[in-house]
């Protein structure tokens, strides 16, 4: 059984989901289930489950990605104001204040979704929480997570861990219930502005911006760092804090790199089982500007290609977009997403688009044929030569990328047959024969 550590992340007394003004989503950590295969777009809220992710677009629609074995990444249509991701189920709060659920329902975490008007939602491993507009908490699903739920009091925020729950009262005090085997439901006293529930640990953000942690601490997930913070998130055994300057600090279990937050300025955070998400602040060159020239273009790809296949450290962490301590093809894919967003695109740049002009046409084809070698012995070549996989040469694999994306009228239009592969192969073999002819190259 995959144990969940998730957080409905909070800042400024909001626990419906990690809320932001709008920006692109960045992810890091484990990507075994595609939970970091982030779609392009502008998002106002995010949530991270065990191995799936949710994003609420600025247009009010929910997008899901990652593990979808129970349908947890296939949200319904509609207009929403908040999202929550559980173990293998998901929740959405409509703009009308109603709750919709989808995904796994083995413990009734969807069947018993209450009716009424709500202001916040949270999802645990197998249970769900909702906060009514009147400040009352309702819990359903796996009974352990709902055990001893407070029946009185006024609440302004909620959070769900694996099998425990938290509520923030209007008096800014924290109450906990459910599983307390590691002390995760026994919060400290004090005045708080935000709460987060992880696997078996909990976090609270005090009104002075200091983070407190309690509960399970085998990986240091409850050993909170100093500083001033505006939001918190708790994963299975890792934790995140969003500082007041927009930087993210991570701590705790880090086997998948989920605690290695990328540099940049962010406005919201979320923590899943072994992955993390953040909404970046729009504007400025962004993390795709690797050569610090205030733009994201093929010069940045040149810089990335120069360190492909290296480890972090010693290579600078700015090249490791998915924080797995290796600079590889996954980081190239992430750059294509981030650069497209930075340059106003509505979908990632495609491998095959040499000029990054959002169409793959004859110009790209001609450039590729100039450097094409079917056995891949020339080079080193860069993106602008037709090297789309970063392996220093321009060979059949690069041609296949171009052929699959060939769309002279622009991304999203109907593709047309690319120039015949036979012509490209003939060109390559003629060049190879010429290179091997007697007297050539002596």
Would you give an account of this structure?
There is one protein chain. With about 450 residues, the protein is α+β, with helices and mostly antiparallel strands. The protein folds into three domains: about 20-280, 7 Propeller (Methylamine Dehydrogenase, Chain H), CATH 2.130.10; about 285-350, Orthogonal Bundle (Type 1 dockerin domain), CATH 1.10.1330; about 355-440, no CATH class. It contains five helices and 22 strands. It is elongated.
Can you describe this structure in just a few lines?
The protein is of the alpha+beta class and 442 residues long. It folds into three domains: 18-280, Methylamine Dehydrogenase, Chain H, CATH 2.130.10.30; 284-349, Type 1 dockerin domain, CATH 1.10.1330; 353-442, no CATH class. The protein contains five helices and 22 strands.
**Helix coverage percent:** 10-25%
Largest sheet: 4 strands, antiparallel
Tell me the series of helices and strands, N- to C-terminal.
EEEEEEEEEEEEEEEEEEEEEEHHHHH
On the 0 to 100 scale, the average pLDDT is 87
CATH architecture of the largest domain: 7 Propeller
Which class do the helix and strand fractions yield? alpha+beta
Number of H- or I-type helical stretches: 5
The tally of structural domains comes to 3
Q: What is the global morphology?
A: elongated
Taking Cα atoms only, what radius of gyration do you get, to the nearest Å? Answer: 24 Å
Main sheet strand line-up:
1-3-4-5
Please identify which CATH superfamily of the largest domain we are dealing with. Answer: Regulator of chromosome condensation 1/beta-lactamase-inhibitor protein II
Strand segment count: 22
CATH topology of the largest domain: Methylamine Dehydrogenase, Chain H
Cα end-to-end separation? 64 Å
Q: Which strand-content bin applies to the residues?
A: 25-35%
Oligomer: single chain
Unreliable spans are 1-16
CATH class of the largest domain: Mainly Beta
């Amino acid at each position: 059984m995959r144990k969940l550590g998730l957080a409905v992340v909070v800042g400024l007394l909001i626990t419906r989901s990690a809320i932001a003004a709008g920006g692109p989503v960045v992810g890091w950590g484990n990507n075994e289930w595609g939970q970091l295969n982030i779609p392009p777009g502008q998002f106002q809220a995010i949530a991270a489950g065990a191995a799936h992710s949710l994003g609420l677009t600025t247009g009010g629609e929910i997008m899901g990605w990652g593990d979808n074995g129970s349908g947890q990444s296939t949200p319904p249509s509609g207009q929403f104001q908040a999202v929550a991701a559980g173990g293998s189920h998901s929740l959405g709060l409509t703009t009308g204040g109603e709750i919709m659920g989808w995904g796994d329902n083995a413990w009734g975490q969807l069947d018993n979704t209450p009716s009424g008007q709500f202001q916040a939602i949270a999802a645990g491993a197998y249970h769900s929480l909702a906060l009514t507009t009147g400040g009352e908490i309702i819990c359903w699903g796996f009974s352990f997570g709902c055990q001893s739920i407070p029946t009185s009091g006024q609440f302004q925020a909620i959070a769900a861990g694996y099998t425990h729950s938290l509520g923030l009262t209007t008096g800014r005090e924290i109450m906990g219930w459910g599983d307390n085997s590691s002390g995760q439901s026994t919060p400290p006293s004090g005045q708080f502005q935000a709460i987060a529930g992880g696997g078996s640990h909990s976090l609270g953000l005090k009104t002075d911006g200091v983070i407190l942690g309690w509960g399970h601490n085998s990986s240091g997930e409850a050993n909170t760092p100093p500083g001033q913070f505006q939001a918190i998130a708790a994963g299975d055994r890792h934790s995140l804090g969003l500082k007041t300057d927009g930087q993210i600090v991570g701590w705790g279990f880090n086997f998948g790199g989920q605690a290695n937050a990328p540099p940049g300025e962010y406005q919201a955070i979320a923590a899943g089982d072994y992955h993390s998400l953040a909404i970046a602040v729009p504007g400025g060159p962004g993390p795709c500007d690797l050569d610090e020239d205030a733009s994201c273009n093929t010069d940045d790809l040149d810089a990335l290609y120069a360190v492909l296949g290296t480890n972090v450290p010693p290579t600078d962490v700015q090249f490791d977009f998915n924080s797995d301590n290796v600079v590889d093809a996954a980081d190239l894919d992430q750059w294509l997403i981030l650069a497209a967003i930075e340059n106003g695109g509505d979908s990632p740049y495609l491998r095959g688009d040499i000029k990054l002009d959002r169409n793959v046409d004859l110009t790209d084809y001609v450039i590729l044929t100039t450097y094409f070698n079917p056995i891949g012995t020339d080079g080193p070549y860069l993106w602008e030569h037709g090297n789309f996989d970063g392996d220093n040469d321009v060979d059949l694999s690069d041609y296949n990328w171009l052929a699959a994306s060939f769309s002279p009228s622009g991304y999203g239009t109907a593709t047309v047959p690319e120039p015949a592969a036979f012509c490209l192969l003939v060109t390559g073999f003629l060049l190879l024969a010429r290179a091997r002819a007697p007297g050539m190259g002596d």
